[in-house]
Amino acid sequence: MLTKDSTFEINVSKTSSIDQVDFDNIAFGKVFSDHVFVMDYVDGEWKRGSIEPFGPMSLSPSTMALHYGQAIFEGMKAYRQEDGSVSMFRPGANITRFNRSAKRICMPEVPEDVFMQALVELVSLDEAWVPDDPQSSLYIRPFLFATDSHVGVRPSFSYKFMIFTCPVGQYYNKPVRVKVETNFTRAARGGTGAAKAAGNYAAALLPTKLAQDEGYDQLLWTDAKSHKNIEECGTMNAAFVVDGKLLVPSTSDTVLAGITRDSALTLATDLGIDVESRVISVQELEEAAEKGLLQEAFGLGTAATVSVICTIGFAEFDYDLPVIADWIIAPQIKSALDSVRLGTGEDKHGWNIPV
Ligand SMILES: *Cc1c(COP(=O)(O)O)cnc(C)c1O
C-alpha cells in the first residue's frame, strides 16, 4: 500500500497516458504504465530506490550492458480479481529466479524484501492500468543491467535495477506452427540457458527468423549435443499430451524452470492428470504422431500462458495435431490456472499476492 512513509521516494507523473489506451485492443508490449521503479547499485551497495514517471533515460555510449550483455530480466503478471482487487501471481518465485539469474551473470542480487516492496508499491500506484478483462492482465518487467562506463570485459561495479509494467491482452491468440530445430542451439550444458539473460534471446533471433522464412512461427529447441531431445518451445516451456498423459521436458541448466510450467504441473496433478517430467526424445514424439497418439502440444509461459501448437515440423514430415476443439488437457490447465489467477477458484497453494 502507498503510505506517506513509503519505502521509496515517489515522483508522481504530472500527466497520464492511460486515456490513450484502448483496453479492448491492447497490443502486447507496446503501451507502458505511467511509472517505473529505479534503484542503483553503486560502491558495493544498493541505494534507496525511487518510483519515477516512465520515460526515456540517458546512458553513456560506453555503458557496459550494451557491449558485453550483462543484463537479465523477469516477466510476471498482476491480475484484476473478481472482487475488483489486484493480485500478483507467484511474484516470490520470480524474485528467486531473478536472483539466480543475477548470480549466473555475475551481478548483485536484489534483496527479496526490497524487490517485493517495489512490486507492491509500483503496481499499487499504477493500479488503474490493470485491465478488467479476464483475458488481459498487467505484465510486470523487472530487469537489471551493468552501468559502468567502461570498455574491457569484466563484471561491472555499478548496476541499475528497474521495473516497469504494461497492460497486455492475449499474447499469441492463434495456434502456432513449430519446427523441431536440429542445427542451431538455444542453450548448452554449462551455459546460461537456465537464466533469463538478455543475450540468450538475441542468440535465438536468427534461427527463429529462418524458421519463419520456412513458414513456421516458432522453434522447438533440442539439446545442444545430440539434437535428439526436446527442450523448449521458443521462449516457453514445452508440453505434450501423448495417449492421455501430460509429458514435459525436465528442467536442467538448459531448460529454464518456468513458473507457468511448475504451476501447470501442480494443477494437473491436483486434477488427477497423469504427469511425467523427464527427457522427451524427438523420436518418441514422432512415433506417437505416426500412431495418432500425439494428442496435444503447447507452450507454457507467463506471456502467453498456454500457447497451443497446431503443427510440428519434424525432419521428415509436418504433423498436424487434432483439431483444438477436441483437446482436453490444455484447456483444463488453462482454466485451472485462470481460476486461481483471477480469484474465481480456490488458491490452495497460496500463489496470489495482493497488492
Ligand atoms: C521465461 C521463460 C520461460 C517461461 O517461464 P515462466 O516463468 O513460465 O514465464 C520458459 N523458457 C524460457 C527460455 C524463458 O525465458
- Order of SSEs, N→C? EEEEHEEEHHEEEHEEEEHEHEEEHE
Count of individual beta strands: 19
Quickly name the level 1 CATH class of the largest domain.
Alpha Beta
- End-to-end separation in angstroms reads 7 Å
Radius of gyration: 21 Å
Name of the CATH architecture of the largest domain: 2-Layer Sandwich
Q: Report the structural category.
A: alpha+beta
CATH fold assignment of the largest domain: D-amino Acid Aminotransferase, Chain A, domain 1
The structural domain count equals 2
Quick check: average pLDDT? Answer: 96
Can you tell me about this structure?
By secondary structure, this protein is an alpha+beta fold. It folds into two domains: 2-168, D-amino Acid Aminotransferase, Chain A, domain 1 (2-Layer Sandwich); 176-341, D-amino Acid Aminotransferase, Chain A, domain 2, CATH 3.20.10. It contains seven helices and 19 strands. Strands 1, 2, 3, 4, 5, 6, 7, 8, 9 and 19 form a ten-stranded mixed beta sheet that branches. A six-stranded mixed beta barrel has the order 10-11-12-13-16-17, surrounded by four helices. Strand 11 and strand 12 (230-233) form a beta hairpin. Helix 5 (259-270) packs across helix 7. The mean pLDDT is 96. The site of pyridoxal-5'-phosphate has 14 residues, from strand 13, helix 5 and strand 16. Pyridoxal-5'-phosphate binds at residues 75, 196, 232, 235-237, 256, 258-261, 300-302.
Defining traits:
355 residues, alpha+beta, D-amino Acid Aminotransferase, Chain A, domain 2, 2 domains, 7 helices, binds pyridoxal-5'-phosphate
What's a concise summary of this model?
The chain has 355 residues and is α+β, with helices and mostly antiparallel strands. The chain has helices spanning 64-68, 91-104, 112-125, 198-213, 259-270, 282-290, 329-341; strands spanning 9-10, 35-42, 45-46, 50-53, 71-73, 76-80, 86-89, 137-146, 159-168, 176-181, 218-222, 230-233, 236-242, 245-249, 275-278, 294-301, 305-313, 318-320, 352-354.
